[in-house]
Structure formats: C-alpha cells, structure tokens
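Subject — a protein and its fold

Tokens — whole-number codes for backbone shape
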Amino acid sequence: MKLKKIEDNIMMATDDGRAFSDGCPFIPVTHEFADQIYLRKMVMPKGTFVQGLFHNHLHIWFLMTGRVAIKNTLNDEIIVHIAPCYTVSKPGSQRNIYAHEDSIFINVHKNPNNTKNVKEIEDEIVSLTKEEYEQKNK
C-alpha cells in the first residue's frame, strides 16, 4: 500500500491498481436509469476513501455536494474538487477518492441497451484491473 500526503493530517492510500468494489456499508451506492443512460450515485461520509475501478469509456461525473480529493491514476495528480462541479473522465482512468466533507458523487454512463441489470452494465463500463482494461480495449 502506498500513502500520499493530501493535507497536513490526511493521507491518501492506494493499493497499486487493485480495485475495491462498492461493498462497503458506509458508502451507499444507488442506481438510476433513463433512456440509454445509467446513473450511479455514491454518498461518501466525511473521512471515507474509495478506490474506484478502471473506466472503459469516456463519461461524465458530478460532485453534487461536499469536497473531495481525487487522485487519477492516468496522471497521478491529486486535485481537490469542491461542489458543485463536474468533469469528463477519460477511458482507462481509475479514481482514488477521499471525502473531506460529506459528499455526493455521481457518474453518468451510456446504457445503449437500456438494461437495468447493474452487473451487466458494470461488466461493460469498468474493469477490475489495468490488465483487464487493456484486454477489453485492444
């Protein structure tokens, strides 16, 4: 595990590309669907950390409330985002997110088949490892 200082008393932990799914009971994730759109909402209490998966496609994410520090593995840069804001996430990115405040984080992905099967959508939009991402995106 690697640690990187974010602020005087806050370190961000990373685990060399191993991803952790959203099985944490302290970080609820909800799913919404619209025509050809999948929205994934994550509520992060202050002081929580999430290491995301590798995103296979270009998509947009929004920080609706709060303040988070995000390290993107594409450039290893840490940026503090203050709500409300949004950005475009590039394919291959993996975000490590630390919540400085209670925060609501939303990802918006394409869902061309209008499936409501979250497992099926996740298999399409994310990869568990960098190697899996590279294999899916040859």
